[in-house]
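Consider one such protein record:
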Amino acid sequence: MDVVRPVDPRLLREASTARRPLLLTVGLGAVTALLVVAQAWLLARVVVDVFQRGESVDQVSSLLVGLLVVFAVRAFVVWAQEVAAQRASAEVKAQLRIEIVEQATELGPVWLSGQRRGELTVLVTRGLDALDGYFAKYLPQLVLAAIVPAVVLLVVATQDVASAVIILVTLPLIPLFMVLIGWTTQRQQDRQWATLELLSGYFLDLVSGLPTLKVFGRAKAQAENLRHVTDQYRKRTMSVLRVTFLSSFALELLSTISVALVAVFIGVRLISGELTLATGLFVLIIAPEAYLPLRQVGLHFHASQEGLSAAQRAFEILDVPRPPDGVVTEGPDLRVTSIRFDGVGARYPARDAEALHDFSMIINPGEVVALVGPSGAGKSTVLQLLLGLLEPDGGRIDLVADGRTWPLSSVARTTWRRTVAYVPQAPAFVTGTIADNVRLVAPEASDRDVERALVQAGAWDFVAALPDGPDTMLGDRGSGLSAGQRQRLALARAFVRDTQLVVLDEPTAGLDGGTEQQVIDSVRRLANGRTVVLVAHRPALLALADRVVRLDPVATPEPVIAS
């Protein structure tokens, strides 16, 4: 059984950037403890002076004013503590999101292809937002629970030792019950978070594939599956709420009984004259304040668990080992003269079968090399290896540059990415203008550079015809453009980047004859003076190649059946 920790050490280490607001939260917690004592003392004095000594309201006006000031200051301190905690939470969430995006970027599309997009989306949005419950509620209350009971116990001990002993004996029971309940809560919350990730990922995949499902008449069946997953999430949520309500009841009952014990002992000694009314009333007013922070910690502990489950998932992603980076950093002056594949084998993570086996090839400068072969032969794997997105499992890939030979793995990824332009089969677009989408690969490009790239890619005619030209806004995934238009914008990115090596993955896939010819003309201009490696199936695209390299599927061994 996992140990339930009051704080997550790694999450606190991640909060190092938010050290100042966290320290402010601790300082305000100490101020709150002092205000609790002052409030109880002033209230006890007012009651004793009015009801025992018979003083008028005017005679205790200074005490009433002091009491109002303490109330106001305490309210302000609570507000300031929450603001500081929210600030710390915002900084930690921002830091974690940056680290996750950087980690996903370094791990690359090969790793991302094995992840559910919906789960990652929920993690970096709602999942990390749930950390507000940890930093803005649970953590400040934990600070109060560490400071206020200790201060109250010390003050009560100076006034009435018997009451202090009762508080000292009963106070540890609340954390004990919290730990016992915490084990159940943690398990329930982890299961709820796993179900939420499943539901979110399933829903996103379902929406993305809805056109295909409608064509094949499977939409209703998937809707039924979605209803089943949603019902699972409802049951998990109700289990968490059931534990939360029961734990709140248990903690409230325990603290109420503890305060009642203090009240009974105080009442008995007041009747016998062993205790003054001022002392008894002061202890009776301040005693519940010793239990209140611990009760609130138990309440906010449940609210914080979703955020902690999300944080643990984030740490799992951050702990995935990154591929080793190279040390050669020649910058833009790295002029590659040839690339050699020598007996290269490769396999994808979490897959046993080889995607590529004993592949050899030399790419000469200024050459257009076309890769052909049936589906599954390893054409895309060669591109992934060439782009540095996948590490070879065997053999080696060497670069010859400036008369020297380097393994591709020895070249820093940032350096190599400045040397290569990539045009995928399904180019990605973000919400923004056409010019912004072209500049994704070259943020420093001027408007003139963008226009020149659009002209070279054969995209300027349709872009200029749009109402706002290059400033026309695109929707998600380039919505509003045809497949051929999106492909020409992707080629414009390669032109604006102006690298010596260009990699294209079936740039004419899914295009009609007229659009295909326009894209081929753009590819021909792109290949002028550059080294191009492309995956191709259509004869018109193969006609551009100086050399065609055929790949055959990796032979799969026949299963051995025991006799």
Notes: Residues 331-550 form a domain with the Rossmann fold fold (CATH 3.40.50.300). The chain has two domains: 9-318, 331-550.
